[in-house]
Give the backbone structure.
Amino acid sequence: MKNSYKKYEKYIIGLGMILFFMLLVFLATYNQFDRAKAAGTWRATYLAVNFGDGNGIAWYAIFIMTGVIYAVILGYLEFKRAKINPDILWDGLLYTLPLAIIGARLWYVFADILKSMSLGQLQNNAFIRDPLLIFGITNQGLQLQGLAIHGAIVVTVVFLIFFTRWKKISYWYVLDVVGPGFMIGQAIGRWGNFINRELYGPVMNFYQWMPNFIRERMDFALGDTMVNTSQPPVYHHPVFLYESSWNLIGLIVIISLRHKRIFKVGDIISFYLVWYGIGRIPVELLRISESGLSGEPLAVGGLSISILTSIGLILTGVAIFLLRRFYFKSKDGYYTDYGKEAILFDLDGTLLDTKEFIFEIVVETFKKYKPEVKLTEKDLLGFFGPTLEESFSKYEENKEKRDEMIRYFRKINDKKHHQQGPKAFPHAKETLIELKKRGYVLGVVSSKRSEFVKLGLNQNELLEYFDVIIGMEEVNQHKPHPEPILAAIDVLGISKNNTTYIGDHPNDILAAKNAGVESIGVAWSSHYEDLLGQKPDAVIETLDNLLHLF
């Protein structure tokens, strides 16, 4: 039962969030319209809970807080998926939420002052005349009206630079988690504007498509308080709905694609900035002037501050994407792989039983080029693990002759591989299948050429389970140097702390230690005593023993 819930957890939570939001909309609109109609009167109220004398809890606040809670739920699920301590999320929220509100307020104040300057009316600006208004302090008490979401975005993005360094977590990954949170927060928060009869556009004539509960709220012939009005309706564009829907569509796109290998770390925040910026521009263009109820857009040089900021967000999103993808060539890897654990395998002697296969090719090569050399089993084992260059150099100092021997070896190797190829060790396939089901990222790091690595895996129906393959030609240094393992880590974008390397040769264990990753040796190694001498972190008797470790 527990496993069944875990499998459908995100769908259950998503459905619950949708149903709760629908309930909120129903309660808010029923409270405002149906009950007033039933009484034969009209009285718009913006309070969900009325304490009397116009004081209480506003629907706007409830929708805003619901958006925040939903954003936190999305963030928690992503932290949980990436195996990140959720305490980091709670700590971040403790700081970010008040800072975002302060940023949103200061941005609104700054834009209002800038507008007054552009109109030559700075001395008449309310915030200049009474600085206490910046903090919402009025003669009637604390009334904080006027927030700009752009300020919240900027402050959050800047604050997270310091917060992620403190918590030692990827800045770009956290931004990728925050982006969808902003989207769902804005999508829901705009319904608070709807209840307040804010964020609407010019008069519209094609209003039949709107549901009644939205259409009636956009009828400004009613005013805020009017009894049995007989005036003809004057409907306005529900701009709040346009922006809410735009953010919801963007959220669906991200949620649908972010767990596929499409977005790299940093791409989601880029997508959010561009998507939100594009959607906000027509919203601002549709907003009406001071003659309406929503207030005049804050303008400088004929453009609102919001439009100018939105253009800046679009350019910033595009710049982040291009710079990280093509200029800096970020190695953070795919978003869906962040926080995952990687299991890297050696090939020969670890996954594939190539011992006799390689021995035959070595013997045939020496029969042709070095018939006087009688190779013992110990000599043959020397060809198991190192590169061919390293192994043959022990028997032939002349580089030209050595290269000729290697070419002959590869020619036979190629022929034998295509004819039959080595077989996988027992339990290889079922172990890889189960590890993939458990969410691990898999790779092969071998001193063999990649084409033969892929060929051998494909012949044993194992190739499809690996996310990366590093062969001898992909690197300049070879095991026990850490470069091959580090190359795989770079491609995957996986932390070294979340990586394990499994091999059968002492060089495999030493390479893992040099790379700073966990090492596991195999008990069927032909170099078992030497392998144990390198002190691997664990040793497995069979491949399916890995399922007890991971």
Summary: The chain has a mean pLDDT of 82.
